[in-house]
Amino acid sequence: MQHSGVNLRFLVYVFVSVLIINMDAHTHALAPVRALLGLTVAPLQELVLVPRRFAEWVSLRAISESELLDKVEDLQAANLTLSARLQRIDGLDAENRRLRELLSASRRGLDRVMLAEIENISLEPFTQSVLVNKGLADGVYEGQPVLDSRGVMGQVVRTSYLKSAVSLVTDPGQTIPVMLERNGLRALTSGTGSRQLLDVPFLDRNTDIRRGDLLITSGLGGRFPYGYPVAIVREVTVDVNEPFLNISAEPVARLGYSREVLLAWPGAEPDADLTPVDVQPIPQPPVSPTSILGGSILTLPGQIPESGGESAPAILPQSTPQPAVSPNQDAVNATRQ
């Protein structure tokens, strides 16, 4: 009798477990509970990472002073180069905004991003995911796009209060709407379980796609913002027995090497504190437009200077103004007719 009671309890526990698994898979009703459980497990995760952090601390202290000085010099040189490039980008961005305002076009601003650090990776052979040190407390949400310095890495699939799990683009369950940068052809990329391989399915044999084409996010679906690099086409093969092409692509992001990632909020304005305060814009020479014979003279950069040492002016043609006709002139013309 006691043995049958144990079996009954076991069946009840199995039924409840299956019910909870189905609710968690098809609804978001248990998301707060999962986040709370993740908060309770966070100290254990930090404890597991202690040996690795200690090893990193020891290896950092073992670096000699000369090596540190060399690294500082390299970083200073790289910082100077990037600051100069950033000044150029700031000038181009300001010019682009002015042109868009003149054309009454919509401006697509930069996306707000947040820096996060990868703390752990999945050890399952066919699951490509990582754990980052940002969670609900930092505004992270499920489905949020994740980037690195080169392109799209994946998206957030689970969040807790302090941590988030990110599914990489190479995960078998990950599909991203993309387009060819060369001709605008829309397509999809699917993960294969391999860190260096993506599949581009459902493109017929007449599709204009070739080796070396860059695939960027199309913005469809509302998850990934438009224009971020995803992969480069590496192989396109035709099978006469198949209606579609066999296309393999390589992710642009450094999936196995990146330590820091960027969490993006599509459509949100960038934070003000992300703008460097120690970088001053390159002073631009004054531009004095002058109206001569219906054209505006503008000094354009990169033109061959004339003998006077100044840049050659480029005349932008405008429509020739028509002289105004007075009422007296209209009367004279009518009399002549």
Set down the secondary structure blueprint:
Blueprint lengths: L1 H25 L4 H31 L3 H38 L9 E10 L7 E4 L12 E3 L4 E8 L4 E5 L6 E6 L5 E6 L6 E2 L14 E4 L11 E9 L8 E6 L8 E6 L24 E3 L2 E5 L13 E4 L10 H10 L1
Antiparallel strand pairs: 1-2, 1-12, 2-5, 3-4, 3-12, 4-5, 6-7, 6-9, 7-8, 8-11, 9-10, 10-11, 13-14, 14-15
Determine the N-to-C terminus distance: 122 Å
Determine the structural class based on helices, strands and strand pairing: alpha+beta
Quote the CATH topology of the domain at 111-271. Answer: Thrombin, subunit H
Number of strands: 15
What report would you give on this structure?
It contains four helices and 15 strands. It is an alpha+beta fold and 337 residues long. Among the domains are: 2-62; 111-271, Rod shape-determining protein MreC, domain 1 (Thrombin, subunit H, Beta Barrel). A six-stranded antiparallel beta barrel has the order 1-2-5-4-3-12. A hairpin with a 5-residue loop joins β6 (175-180) and β7. The longest helix has 38 residues, at 65-102. It starts with a helix and ends with a helix.
Offer a quick outline of the entry.
With 337 residues, the chain is α+β, with helices and mostly antiparallel strands.
Quick tags:
single chain, about 325 residues, alpha+beta, Thrombin, subunit H, six-stranded antiparallel beta barrel, six-stranded antiparallel barrel, 4 helices, 15 strands, about 25% strand, globular, disordered C terminus
